[in-house]
């Protein structure tokens, strides 16, 4: 796999879109997990997971805007 910085613009855009798609799926799953757990320890775990995926999603969105890919 090529480094993203070395890849042609179309490839970078495709990779960014794929990362966003995968991260959106992970975000949907994290929300589902959070809504379904009842054990206090699992609630805490779900919150951390949800926050981490939200941060990654925001990062990818920002990356797309900065590079003009979106």
Brief description of this entry?
This protein is an all-alpha fold and 70 residues long.
What layout of secondary structure does this protein have?
Blueprint: H1 9-36, H2 40-66
Task: Summarize the structure in words.
With 70 residues, the protein is mainly α. 79% of the residues lie in helices and 0% in strands. The chain is built from 2 helices and no strands. Helix 1 runs antiparallel to helix 2. The radius of gyration is 15 Å and the shape is elongated. The two termini are 23 Å apart. The mean pLDDT is 88.
Q: Kindly state the number of beta strands.
A: 0
Fraction of residues in H or I helices: over 70%
The low-pLDDT segments are none
User: What percentage of the residues does DSSP assign to strands (E)?
Assistant: under 5%
Number of DSSP helical runs: 2
Q: What pattern of helices and strands is seen along the backbone?
A: HH
The biggest beta sheet is recorded as: none
| CA distance, first residue to last residue | 23 Å
Task: Compute the average pLDDT.
Answer: 88
Measured on Cα atoms, how large is the radius of gyration?
A: 15 Å
Query: Could you say which overall geometry the principal axes of the C-alpha atoms support?
Result: elongated
- The structural class is mainly alpha
């Amino acid at each position: 796999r090529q480094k993203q910085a070395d890849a042609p613009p179309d490839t970078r855009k495709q990779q960014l879109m794929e990362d966003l798609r995968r991260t959106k799926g992970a975000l949907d799953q994290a929300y589902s997990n959070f809504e379904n757990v009842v054990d206090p320890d699992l609630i805490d775990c779900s919150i951390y997971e949800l926050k981490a995926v939200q941060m990654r999603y925001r990062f990818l969105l920002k990356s797309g805007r900065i590079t003009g890919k979106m």
